Amino acid sequence: MAKDGTRNRPLSPHLEIWRWGPHMFVSILHRVTGDGMAFAGLGLLLWWLGALASGPAAYAQFAKCMTSIPGYVVLIGVSWAFFTHMMSGLRHFVLDIGAGFELKANRTFSILAPVMGVLVTVAFWALLLLR
Amino acid sequence: MGNGTSIGRVRGLGAAKTGVHHWLLQRFTAIGNLLTGIFLAVSLVLLPDLSYASVAEWLARPVPAVAMILLVVTTFWHARLGLQVLVEDYVHEHANKFACIVALNLAACGGIAFGVFCVIRLALGAHA
Fold first, then answer.
1. What are phi and psi of B13, to 5 degrees?
2. DSSP labels for A69-106?
3. pLDDT tens-digit series, residues A76-109
4. Which among A2, A31, A127 has the least Cβ separation from residue B3?
């Protein structure tokens, strides 16, 4: 009886129905970077803190792994995910207060967020490597 | 919540009944992530180098130690909320969904405990 109402209900239109726009891209990117960081980023954070608490030998091993080519790919990937998620997260704060839903403003913020994410990542690494 | 008609089963679950708590916590922890994340990024840039001596000396100081403890708590909490939404969106079978949420809660608590313990151990002079 209770389940009768849930059968054969119309499904909401999904990705293949809508015309693609930057707002869809930034939304998917927000989830991908967030869930990616939940596994790779937090794992890395715990490894870093664990190595520091364990002593110089463990930290040297961590540093050796992270300064290899795959290590740099992971570090740059996580930092890119961090700053991109931060920028699209700031976009969410704007949407949360009810602003930025006009077509033009929404499009501008949706393009700006991932671009800013890349720019801040580049700036972060430039500051790290050039000091 | 009734179990009769469709409207009866959802009536009362709208705005401000349930769901808002999760949404608000995601925002509160997002602000925590923003503040502590920026603190970490700026600190990494300002450190003279990333050798063990420099980083350990920095992390053992009171303000960075507390900031990193807060970072661990707020990021794991935020990740736990975000992954819960991912599970609810893509794991439809009830038993599997329950198992995923159980694993998620255990992993989040374990991650917080390990991260906080590591910072405290270092800050209280394990290698000083």
1. -100, 10
2. HHHHHHHHHHHHHHHHHHHHHHHHHHHHTT-S-SHHHH
3. 999 999 999 999 999 999 999 999 999 999 999 9
4. A2
Residues 89-118 on A with a CB inside 8 Å of B are 89-90, 92-93, 96
Among candidates A5, A55, A128 on the partner chain, residue whose Cβ is nearest the Cβ of B127: A55
Residue range B53-104, pLDDT digits in tens? 999 999 999 999 999 999 999 999 999 999 999 999 999 999 999 999 999 9
Q: Which chain A residues are within 8 Å of B121, Cβ to Cβ? A: 53
By CA distance, what is B68's nearest residue in A?
A49
B97 neighbors B51 (Cβ within 8 angstroms): no
What pTM was estimated for this model as a whole?
A: 0.88
- Provide the residue ranges of all domains of chain B, joining segments of one domain with +: 20-123
B20-123 sits in which CATH class?
Answer: mainly alpha
Q: Which domains does chain A have, with CATH numbers?
A: 22-130 (1.20.1300.10)
Distance CA(B50)–CA(B44), nearest Å, equals 8
Q: Chain B contacts of A59, Cβ < 8 Å?
A: 52, 55-56
